[in-house]
Amino acid sequence: MSLPAQVRLVEVGPRDGLQNEAQPISVIDKVRLVDDLTEAGMSYIEVGSFVSPKWVPQMGGSAEVFAGIAQRAGVTYAALAPNLRGFEDALAAGVREVAVFAAASEAFSQRNINCSIAQSLERFEPIMDAARQHGVRVRGYVSCVLGCPYEGQVDPQQVARVARALHDMGCYEVSLGDTLGTGTAGDTRRLFDTVSAQVPRERLAGHFHDTYGQALANVYAGLLEGIQVFDSSVAGLGGCPYAKGATGNVATEDVLYLMQGLGIETGVDLDRLVAAGQRISDVLGRQNGSRVARARLAAKG
Ligand code: HMG
Ligand code: MG
Predict the structure, then answer these.
(1) Could you point out which of 105, 189, 222, 276 has its C-alpha 20 to 30 Å from the C-alpha of 200?
(2) Predicted pLDDT at 240
(3) How many Å lie between the centroid of ligand 2 and the Cα of residue 250?
(4) What is the CATH number of the domain that holds 63?
(5) CA distances from residue 101 to 71, 98, 139, 141, 163 in whole angstroms, order as listed
(6) 2 is a domain residue
(7) Tens digit of each residue's pLDDT (9 = 90 or more) over 163-206
(8) d(CA 168, CA 62)
(9) What three-state secondary structure class fits 227?
(10) Hey, whose CA ends up nearest to atom 12 of ligand 1?
(11) From the CA of 141, which ligand is nearest?
């Protein structure tokens, strides 16, 4: 299969990246991160979550973050919503695109959102209805697509069933999440091959955590499978509070560098992105998780 001319990068750093941070991060720093990402040319930014602050305290200030950011026309600013309450809070904060999240493993579903996979899908129905009424677009996630921290191996057919259920209920795109970051390029190709029998490839996205250092290879495997949307996190921030030991998403800078090398257009400025990632890494007092960013910054001296 030939590679696409364009790819859409979904920046999940402000949400997936920061949600796991134990130290409180100020609204000002979160707003600055989103604004920096807008300036770098990201066309899609996941800004926060309208989940229970008891479950994920760091996302508690998401409404304030939405109120503070400078939204640029043509850029999507999205938020996670686990239930109707979250959707309504998101709507009240002016959010025009939400993401619902299900899992391919029952144990992870229970740990992450305190219900079974079937119950989670039922919970999403009223969100879909309300979203249609308000003209809000809904993206879907399936977690643990290449392994579960509690159940181990996950059957690609099970991923396909959950992805199809999300697509059938109206999610315009379904992002397949290797939450644990253990998947390989071979697993990734088999996964997209299986799931695309149920959901068209142009409606699928890849979301790879980099725990085992395979995420960039998995992005490339996704490209070879005809996938054109990838989630990534500036400076490789992040992890999921309910997937212990899992590290951040593949770094956006690294994915961008890969795409540039392949001649694939993304609309993102690498230098600005590197600066955005370094700024938030400094705020967190953490080494920048992007190899490309570290190399570029070292070269500058
Ligand atoms: P629950 O305890 O079963 O919910 O949690 P509940 O309906 O029984 O409500 C319990 C309390 O939470 C009540 O408050 C509700 O009002 C409140 P209380 O009466 O005790 O004071 N509540 C809420 N508060 C704010 N916003 C809401 C909301 N809903 C209820 N929306 C629930 C169920 C889903 C709420 C909880 O489990 C939760 O918030 N989970 C979120 C977990 C999460 O955010 N995980 C990380 C994101 S997923 C991820 O990272 C994976 C991904 O990146 C892809 C990948 O990598 O695979 C997307
Ligand atoms: Mg994730």
Answers:
(1) 105
(2) 65
(3) 10
(4) 3.20.20.70
(5) 24, 10, 9, 5, 10
(6) no
(7) 999 999 999 999 999 999 999 999 999 999 999 999 999 999 99
(8) 29
(9) coil
(10) 52
(11) 1
289 part of a folded domain? yes
What is the number of the ligand 1 atom nearest to the C-alpha of 59? 44
| pLDDT tens, residue by residue, 120-135 | 999 999 999 999 999 9
Name residues whose C-beta falls within 8 Å of residue 33's C-beta, 6 or more positions apart in sequence.
13, 14, 18, 234, 276, 279, 280
Question: What is the distance between the alpha carbons of residues 217 and 121, in angstroms, rounded to a whole number?
Answer: 31
Q: Does residue 187 lie in a domain region?
A: yes
Number of domains comprising the chain: 1
Cα 214 to Cα 73, 220, 224: the distances in Å are 34, 10, 15
Q: Which amino acid is at 88?
A: E
Question: What is the domain extent for residue 109?
Answer: 8-300
Count of positions (residues) in the chain = 301
Residue for token digits 């508690």?
Answer: 60
Looking at the CA of residue 175, tell me the nearest atom of ligand 1: 54
pTM over 0.90? The answer is yes
Burial of 60 from C-beta contacts in 10 A (0-12 / 13-18 / 19+): middle
Give nearest CA residue, ligand 1 atom 33. 113
Residue corresponding to tokens 């993206």? 139
For residue 241 the two structure tokens come to 């509070």
Give the C-alpha distances (Å, rounded to integers) separating 213 from 103, 115, 224: 22, 31, 19
Q: In angstroms, rounded to a whole number, what is the distance separating the alpha carbons of residues 245 and 278?
A: 23
Hey, which bits of the chain come out as E strands? Answer: 8-11, 44-49, 76-80, 97-103, 137-143, 173-178, 204-208, 229-232
- The 8-class DSSP code of residue 16 comes to I
230 - beta bridge partners?
9, 206
Residue pair 37/71 in contact by the 8 Å Cβ criterion: no
Classify 141 as helix, strand or coil: strand
Please report whether residue 229 resides in a domain.
yes
Q: What are the tokens at 101?
A: 């999240």
Ligand found nearest the CA of 99: 1
